[in-house]
Amino acid sequence: MFSTLKHRLWRSKKREKEETGKQNRKIAMAKNRSRIFSSCSLLMSLLFFYSALVQFNDPDWYFWLPLYSSAFLVNLLNMRIPSKSKTLTLVAQLTLVGGNLLFVKVVIEALVLSGFSAFWSMDMRERVVREKVGSGLVVLSMLLHLKASSTTSTNQTKFSKRNQVSALPEAGMALLVVLSYGLSIYVFGFINKEEMKFS
Questions:
Q1: DSSP string of the chain, one letter each residue
Q2: What pLDDT, in 10s, does the model give residues 155-197?
Q3: In contact, 173 and 158? CB cutoff 8 Å
Q4: pLDDT tens per residue across span 64-86
Q5: CB of 144 within 8 A of CB of 165?
Q6: Which single residue of 76, 88, 93, 190 could bond 45 by disulfide (Cβ 3.0 to 4.6 Å)?
Q7: Residue-number span of the structural domain to which 49 is assigned
Q8: Torsion sign over Cα 194, 60, 63, 105
Q9: Which residue has the higher pLDDT, 4 or 52?
Q10: What is the pLDDT of residue 22?
């Protein structure tokens, strides 16, 4: 009887130790995810900040400056960990709506000016293509931030009561950073400025 009790006690301690190990691994993975998401948010905020700065020579800067500025703010303020702040979520939702409206505006403008082939065009020398890509990046970024803020999970341990980012928005943000910086390097590094069209 004593050996049975001792064996049960040993099994429960072993189970408890395994659970603690699993929780520690989950916490470590969540911290790594948060770091990746934070780094990607910082990089996207820098890109949107630069995009807002270069809008002053654009004929319709009054559309694009607020869009890029609000995308900059959402990325910068969500950099640490996606917030459940209602104000920040509202700003992200409004930015998403604005990005979608400007995307539709640019697509209609391209269709009217150049026909249906302009819809699929990725010729970055064209202003409408750059605006289409820019609004698309804002839309994707806002979707990922809204997804991250809605799917954050709180661990039950005392150590991490703060929110952690789920894997989908984290991977999406990493891909978005690679895509957006790759396009930026291509546009500013390989396209001759004289070839770019601004009207």
A1: -HHHHHHHHHHHHHHHHHHHHHHHHHHHHHHHHHHHHHHHHHHHHHHHHHHHHGGGGSTTHHHHHHHHHHHHHHHHHTSSS----HHHHHHHHHHHHHHHHHHHHHHHHHHHHH-THHHH---TTSHHHHHHHHHHHHHHHHHHHHHHHHS-EE-SSSS--SEE--HHHHHHHHHHHHHHHHHHHHHHHHS-GGG----
A2: 444 444 444 567 888 899 999 999 999 998 988 888 877 777 7
A3: no
A4: 999 999 999 999 998 765 566 78
A5: no
A6: 76
A7: 2-195
A8: negative
A9: 52
A10: 62
When divided into structural domains, the chain yields a total of 1
Check: CB of residue 149 under 8 Å from CB of residue 81: no
Judge contact between 138 and 71, C-beta under 8 A.
yes
Confirm if 44 and 180 have CB atoms less than 8 A apart: yes
Residue 98, both tokens: 């604005």
Distance CA 94, CA 165 (A): 22
How many other CB atoms are there within 10 angstroms of residue 130's CB atom?
A: 20
